[in-house]
Design a protein that fits this description.
The complex is a heterodimer of chains A (242) and B (465). By secondary structure, chain A is α/β, with parallel strands linked by helices. Chain A has 13 helices and 8 strands. The longest helix of chain A has 15 residues.
């Protein structure tokens, strides 16, 4: 199976290892992985802030980069949602572009979702045996795309224990520009979410498919000197195969 | 009501800084409501109910002209006097005139958000008429001279200590009085109010066009007393609150209660069918329904925002909203707060006065999942943001930054260059407080630390597997 990696700007800049893990993981599952040149950002920051006229050329750029792909896989839930759900929305008054956006939408997947739904794999190995993991569901991937079980199946299947976390599905307060437009509210949301975690002694690490959330939560964890390692889902899934 | 929505960013930060108990009270209460709502939804085929309710409300809104006329006819047939108010002025004048003709001296109020929207209490006070709020939460905030901070639980931002203190000062209750004791004191005072009042003012959850039935849901019994004990009952009803058929209530009464408080049905449901008949021992002599537009028909005419009018004011979106939970409703600066307020207020008041509200969301989407009539709140928040941009209401610096971003992201060489440049900056260069975005980030969060090499650099260098 031929997969084109859309690494996304956040992973490219801040979680490069997660990009590497994504490639290794997909190759280990028998996929051919290419990295189409010229890719940048999906355009979500502009779209979510209401700057649709600015988001469209970025979306169009991404459309042309990935137009020839068989499958597009992203190690990011929110960016997957942008391509899959919001690109068509951006072009609802432009039938020609809408058709292109729909075509890309239909072949775009978040990493864990791709592994479970397209590759039909739920057992990656036993590399996570005994690990106690807190899973943060990104809001977009969870509620816009309805992807919830796929990452949990893969983690669980590799021997991990998903710790009970009452607020696992609650927003962490990142929200893109929201985190800097209303920083006090955003931080208060992070604190509330973190406060509902089991004690640090009962968790090995937190993971998520969303880089933005991890930057925000991770930044807060460091600022408050909490003991909570955070690892991108792609890296954890690669670990699962080892 | 005075609108202070443009102060949302400052106010939300201030509440978090200076009134930490608000976050505690609101988070506790809304988590409780939201949990009960989820349970109550799980008991039934809530997806089917929500789709059906959405369909009925869409139908009503698409034929609102006909249903309003039908409702007027049905209400009049029941002996109800029907009034139309295009805006707040006309609504206040209408209520004032009913009060003047009826020689009203004392009014009891059942909890109504439309009344808050219209500023009925200050108007009555200006006429020398005493207005007593009879919902316990509403009574408490009336004593404090505060607006409601939640659609269903108006005093949700207060904790027991604050209420104890208030009652101790006002009514000399013991400083450690139990909630039951406080409620008993309020009940006694309110009972006297019901008996002395000439007029009761309520809102309306639904008006059935077919039968002219005014439906009211509550848990305290104060609405039933307010609408039946005084000589005159005035119901203020937004024009969007119609249902076509009596049988529609079967789902809407239960769905609204499940969404609002997780109950299968409100403790009291009043279906008002007009004033006291000749053979009836009690009930009001006059019943008036004032249909209030006050910006609603312009929302209806809005080809995107019209779906907002399906709202049944259950506050499920407030209860499930992680943003609302941090500050409660006052920071939003208008009677309707939380996610629904963030899309309704711009529609009713215009964006100029409410421009921060569509941004008062992380777009997490929990509100849409909770909404009993499936209002696409996240989508409408985005729509209002887009309009704010189009109308030039966003900060200039932000607009310029986004334009620069879009330019860089459509030029791969520029993106690569920036990516390399960032890595050539001295360590901690991103931890500065000169660039506003970085300053906002760094205060409360550790600085941003890019990976040693970008993935793209690693790929190009052949370092990936």
């Amino acid at each position: 199976m031929k997969v084109s990696l859309f690494v996304t700007c956040v992973a490219d800049q801040f979680f490069a290892d997660a990009g590497v893990a994504t490639v290794k993981l997909l190759r280990s599952l028998g996929c051919t992985v290419d990295f189409p040149a010229g890719q940048t950002c999906c355009g979500q920051p502009a779209y979510n802030a209401g700057y649709w006229a600015e988001a469209r050329p970025v979306a169009e750029h991404t459309l042309s980069v990935f137009e020839q792909a068989q499958y597009v896989v992203l190690p990011s839930g929110s960016c997957t949602t942008m391509v899959r759900a919001f690109y068509p929305e951006l072009y609802r008054d432009n039938p020609k572009m809408f058709a292109r956006a729909e075509a890309l939408s239909h072949k775009t997947y978040e990493l864990a979702e791709f592994i479970v739904k397209v590759l039909g794999v739920t057992r990656l190995g036993q590399g996570l045996a005994g690990k106690r993991i807190a899973y943060h569901h990104g809001c977009h991937v969870l509620r816009e795309l309805g992807i919830k079980q796929e990452p949990l199946m893969l983690l669980h299947g590799a021997g991990a224990e998903i710790v009970d976390w009452a607020a696992a599905e609650e927003c962490c307060g990142f929200g893109g520009l929201f985190s800097v437009k209303l920083p006090e509210v955003a931080l208060s949301m992070a604190d509330r979410k973190l406060s509902t975690l089991p004690p640090a002694s009962q968790i090995d690490f937190l993971t998520s498919a969303d880089g933005g959330c991890m930057l925000h939560l991770g930044g807060r964890v460091k600022n408050r000197k909490l003991n909570l390692p955070i690892k991108p889902l792609a890296s954890v899934l690669w670990e699962a195969t080892q | 009501m005075k609108v202070t929505s443009n102060q949302y960013p400052q106010e939300s930060a201030r509440v978090l800084r200076e009134e930490p108990h608000v976050r505690e009270s609101v988070t506790g209460a809304t988590l409780n409501f939201d949990g009960k709502r989820r349970q109550a939804y799980a008991e039934v085929d809530s997806e089917a109910w929500r789709h059906w309710a959405e369909g009925v409300k869409n139908h009503v809104l698409m034929h609102l002209d006909q249903y309003l006329v039908q409702a007027e006819t049905s209400l009049q047939r029941n002996g109800v006097q029907v009034h139309w108010a295009e805006d707040g002025d006309e609504a206040r004048r209408t209520v004032a005139e009913i009060a003047r003709v009826g020689r009203v001296k004392k009014v009891v109020k059942a909890k109504t958000m439309v009344s808050e929207e219209l500023g009925i209490n200050p108007m009555l006070e200006g006429m020398g008429i005493e207005a007593l709020e009879t919902d316990l939460g509403e009574y408490i905030i009336q004593l404090l001279n505060q607006p409601p901070s939640h659609i269903v639980g108006p005093a949700i931002h207060l904790n027991l200590e604050q209420i104890r203190k208030l009652f101790h000062q006002r009514f000399q209750t013991p400083p450690e009085a139990s909630p039951d004791h406080l409620a008993a004191v309020a009940r006694k005072l309110l009972r006297e109010g019901f008996l002395k009042a000439d007029m009761g003012i309520s809102g309306g959850n639904f008006v059935v066009a077919e039968t002219g039935t005014l439906a009211l849901i509550e848990n305290e019994g104060n609405i039933r007393l307010s609408t039946s004990a005084p000589r005159i009952h005035v119901a203020l009803v937004g024009i969007e609150k119609l249902l076509p058929r009596f049988s529609d209530l079967s789902v809407f009464l239960s769905l609204t209660a499940r969404a609002a408080t997780g109950q299968r049905l409100g403790t009291f449901v009043s279906l008002i069918q007009g004033p006291r008949r000749a053979d009836e021992p009690d009930g009001p002599e006059e019943v008036h329904v004032v249909f209030v537009d006050n910006g609603r028909s312009s929302v209806l005419a809005d080809h995107e925002a019209w779906e907002t009018l399906r709202c049944v004011r259950c506050a499920a979106c407030l209860n499930t909203c992680p943003v609302y939970r941090q500050t409660g409703g006052h920071a939003y600066g208008y009677v309707y707060s939380g996610p629904i307020g963030a899309i309704l207020s711009p529609g009713l008041l215009g964006l100029e006065e409410t421009k921060p509200l569509p941004y008062a969301s992380s777009l997490c989407g929990a509100c849409f999942q909770a909404c009993p009539v499936r209002i696409p709140i996240p989508k409408l928040l985005l729509t209002w943001r887009h309009r704010a941009v189009e109308e030039g209401l966003t900060p200039r610096l932000e607009a310029a930054a986004i334009k620069g971003y879009a330019l860089a992201m459509t030029q791969p060489w520029a993106y690569s260059l920036a990516s390399k440049a960032v890595r050539m900056l001295p360590e901690k260069a991103l931890d500065n407080t000169i660039v506003p975005v970085l300053k906002a980030w760094i205060e409360g969060r550790a600085g941003l630390k890019p990976s040693p090499k970008s993935f793209q650099q690693m790929w190009e260098a052949g370092e990936v597997g």
